[in-house]
């Protein structure tokens, strides 16, 4: 018996995960995902990104928020859930909902405008005066929401698709580098003399 350095099982799993992520990224860079197995995976990914990302964004500081902002956050969260489910996810499975499906710009523009205006209203009636930079920032946010809502040239769906592809490639690179850093493991293997001896005995 002799010792041989081989790739660790964990590293093999990471290599597989990296190539799967790379494959998903390449797949989403093509039009195939717009109609794969009868489903528009672009719409599904946008819906899940909005649902998960929006929930994390809104709830990350929920405990430390003021009472008025908590109510506002809950209302926004309800809108995010409704738009994610009825605007993107469920229409791919329920044909009757496809007639209600609007463009990504409409949904995202509405959410951005609502977030900007409602936050400005709540901050306006707080005891502490709103800093000028914050007023300008939320004012620009409302304007950006209006631009998204009314824009015919700004394709939010394509921007999100590019983001998904970039995210997959980034994650694949990180996982691949992590796999390469893992040390090899020692394995006991038979040498040629032992193998020939076993073959003679057989």
Q: Give the N-terminus to C-terminus distance in angstroms.
A: 19 Å
Identify the overall geometry.
Answer: extended
Provide the gyration radius in Å.
26 Å
Structural class: mainly alpha
Q: Taking all residues together, what is the mean pLDDT?
A: 77
Multimeric status of the protein: single chain
Largest sheet: 2 strands, antiparallel
- Strand arrangement, major sheet: 1-2
Count of β-strands: 2
Number of helices: 7
Which range best describes the helical content: under 10%, 10-25%, 25-40%, 40-55%, 55-70% or over 70%? 55-70%
User: In percent terms, what proportion of residues is strand?
Assistant: under 5%
Give the SSE string.
EHHHHHHEH
Give the low-pLDDT segments.
none
Which SSEs are present, and which pair or pack?
Blueprint: E1 2-6, H1 9-28, H2 41-59, H3 67-89, H4 104-124, H5 132-150, H6 156-181, E2 185-189, H7 192-201
Antiparallel strand pairs: 1-2
Helix pairs in contact: 1-6, 2-3, 2-6, 3-4, 4-5
